Amino acid sequence: MTETGFAQAHTMTPLGRSSTPQDIAQAVAFLLRAPAITGTTLLVDGGQHLSPQSRDVLFLTPQTDSR
Fold it and tell me: What would the DSSP string read from start to end of the chain?
């Protein structure tokens, strides 16, 4: 995938950006502080799962450089 395609894919999420390592760390910290949460999947994807896309946004952008 080209760098341009990668950057474009992340703007296609409802938040308009990709998840950062800090987003992941905050989600983990939340789960560690909430011992009653068990057996669930926590999606940290910028809201991508809420978009009516047929494929992951990374598959909807140019995959290779056209050079």
Answer: --HHHHHHHHTTSTTSSPPPHHHHHHHHHHHHH-TT--S-----STTGGGS--SS-GGGSS--S---
Please name which of 26, 27, 9, 29 lies closest in space to residue 18, comparing C-alpha atoms: 9
| pTM exceeds 0.90, yes or no | no
Domain of 17? 3-59
The 8-class DSSP code of residue 20 comes to P
**How do residues 36-67 score in pLDDT, each as one tens digit?**
998 888 888 888 777 776 666 666 666 555 55
Residue pointed to by tokens 């047929």: 54
CATH number where 46 lies: 1.10.8
